[in-house]
Specification:
This protein has 236 residues and is α/β, with parallel strands linked by helices. The chain has 8 helices and 12 strands. The radius of gyration is 23 Å and the shape is elongated. GO terms for molecular function: ATP binding; kinase activity. It comes from Pseudomonas amygdali pv. mori str. 301020. Keywords: ATP-binding, Kinase, Nucleotide-binding, Transferase.
Length: 236
Amino acid sequence: AYQRQFGVEGTPHVGEKCYRVSHQFAVPCDQAGEHCPMRKAHDTRLPERLLHIHHTPRGPEHVDVELRPILDDGGEVIAYVERLSSVAVASVQPQQHGLVGRSAAFKDVLGALQRAAPAQIPVLLQGESGTGKELFARALHASSARSAGPLVVVDCTGLTETLLESELFGYEKGAFTGALQRKTGLAEAAHGGTLFLDEIGEVPLAMQVKLLRLIESGSFRPVGSLRTVHSDFRLV
C-alpha cells in the first residue's frame, strides 16, 4: 500500500524503520526535530494526528498522518493502525500557485485545514490583508466534499450596502432603475459549493443583519422580490 501511494516500487523498505523510509533520517523523528505520532500514541494510548514531510521519488510532500493504537485487554499497546494521505493542496517546493511552506507554523495551520475540510460547518479564517486567506479558502474547498461544486468569492471591501446586497442576493427585473432583467446573486450561485466572504469585517453595519440571516439559515430575499431563496453552501 505504501509503495502504491508514494511510488517507492523497487526500493527495499520492508523491515526498515519508518523514519528511514519516510524521512531519510538516521535517528527517530523525535530526535530529529519532528513530532513522532507513534511515540505520543504509545504514551497516551490515544489516537494521534499530525502533518509530516515525507520524501518520495516525486520530491518532499506534505502527508497527513493519522495513527491509532490497538490495545490488549490489559490496556497495553500491541499494534498500531496508521493512515497516510498526501496533501495535494500544499507543496513543500516553490511553485506558481497554491500553498507553499514547510515551517512548523505552516504545518500547524495546514493540519487544522485538513481536519476542518471534511466538516460542513462554517470556517473563520483570520489574518492580516495579504496573508493568503483566499489561498487557504481555495485549499479548504478543494479538500472538502464540495470540491466538485463552485467556489464563489465575494470581496466585501469598498462595497456600499446597496451594491453588496444586489451582488450577494441578486435582484428581480424592475427592482431599481437599470434592472432590466433578473440577476442571480452570488449566494445563490454558490449552491452546492463554498461561499467565501473576503474581508467580512468591512460589511456595512446595516447589511450585517441581512447577512446574519444568510449565515444562520442559508436563506435570503433578492432585491425587489417577495420570495425567499435557500442556497446550500459552506460558508468561509
